[in-house]
Every structure is written in structure tokens, then in C-alpha cells.
Input
Amino acid sequence: MYVSILSLKLCASYEPTMKLTYTYLLYSLMILSISLFAVNAIAIAVEAKDKSGSDPNIKLVNVPYSAVAKLPQVPAEKTVKYGIDPQQYFYYWPAQVDDNPALEDDKRAPVIMIHGGCWLSAFDITHSIAQANGLAHAGHAVYSIEYRRSGETGGGWPITFNDVMLGITSIIESLPESTTTVNLIGHSAGGHLALLAAGDIQRHLALLGRSDLTLNIVGLAAIVDIKQYALGQNSCQAATTDFMAGMPDEKISDYYLANPLKLALTDQALTQVTLLQGDVDTIVPISQARHPNAHTIIEPGAGHFDWIHPQSSAFQTLLGVLQ
Output
């Protein structure tokens, strides 16, 4: 009886302590659960960020140049010279139809592409290889033109444009006779050169005996009004005077001839002229995306380099306007 009473007293005395311990344990478990959830959430966020350059299901926006530079590059299958200068060549990638069975019954037109880089020698064809890879993977045979640029490679106006025109005609000469349509695209300064080429393409096709060929022209953040662009303050705009060897008021006739905005892009060979422009581009302003003979598409959230990153939303828009 004494033992029973003692036990009851002991239990009664420990009851508050047990309740306190139980409450503390519940609180500790709750804190631990919250901590684990937070760590897991951070890990997921970091993992998604790290994989954004390789997961094809992630569509990027406002892509920095550093993201493009980190992309893997598949070397061209062929390098073809179109002139005697070391910079006068183009790369060729065949359409990767075998990698994408869905493309077998839907043959895509080849793409002739002109890379950008403010017309400067410092920026060569290398930075556009991932873009070419993405186009080839989408089912297009790709021809990417290198050319002399202002600076050490000996380019500038009109040498650079003459190189590009010679490269385009050399590629067209090499195309199978069964080819009826070609996509001609250019990014930034390359877009400027592509639009200039489009303005004179009908004459060249006649000289090549390919008047039957039609071209789909696409400018990607293209410099359409070079005269206005030269008056800007960013580093690429400042490089315009190196390319043109002077300011617009000093080289009036040259700026007129080098200005796509002054060209009538109405040749019968041109099936469509499209200007694709991101609304957060800080290198080529949105005001450049205008031409009376072109259809303009503004890509929300896209910066300057989205067009050359195959995993961006803008790249999907580009694929949608190609033939």
C-alpha cells in the first residue's frame, strides 16, 4: 500500500515535466521539418538553375552571353573556302534528320546564317556554333558564313558586305537543283548584312541561273537603320564608326548605301522578310525593328543573345518563322 501511494505521488510529480518534455519534442520536430523543407527547396532551386543550360524542357529568357559561351559545340562537318583570304569560308552542318524521326517526312529548307558581333574582328563565327547546332538539330542544313570584319581581319564597309555576298552566292551555287527555298538569317550586325544582301539578291540569282529560288529573310535583333544606330552610346553602337570609317555626317553616301532601311525589300525572290526583336535588348534597341517591307515580331522578355541560344523561348519563335 505504501509503495502504491508512493508511485502515485511520483507519477503526479513527474506529470508536468513529462508534458513539458513532450511539448519540447513536438516543437523540435516541427523546427526540423521546416529546416529540411527549406534545404530541399534551396537544393531544387539550385539544381534547376544549374541544369538550365542542358535541359531541353527549360525555355530561357533574357539569356546572357556567358550562357551561350558555355554551351557544347558540335564542329561543322565541312569547311568550305569561298575566297583566298583566311576569313573567307563557311561552315556546313547537315540536317540531323536521323536524330529526329519526326522530321523525315517534313524536309526543312536550308539555312544560310550570318553571325553578329558589331562587325568587329574580336567576334568571330565561333560564338554562333551552338545556334547552328540547334538549327541542324531542328532539321535544317546549315551554312554559316565567316567574313572579314573591321579591325585586324581587314574588313569594314564595303569589304565586309562584299565578303558576305560572295559567301551567299557560293553557297547557292553548291545547293542541289531540287532546292527551291532558302532561309537567310542574320543576328545583330549579321542581320544588318543579311538585309542588305536581300536587297540585291534577285540580280545575283539571275547571274547564277537560279531565278527559280526563293528566300525567306529573318533578321534577329538586326541593325536595320545603321545611320541611327551609329549615333547611340553603347559599345556596339560606338563600333559602327569603325566599320563605316566615320560618322554619318562624314560618310553620307556610304551610310545611305549601307542602310537596309533605305532599301526596298520587294524582289520577287523574297517570300517573306521578318524582324525578330526582344523587348529587353540593351544592345540593339527595339526602335531598330522596323522596315516598311518587313513583318516585326516582338519577343517578350528576350534580350540580345536569346536568338542564338537553342534552349530559349526566342529560339523557338525563330524556328516557327523558318521554312
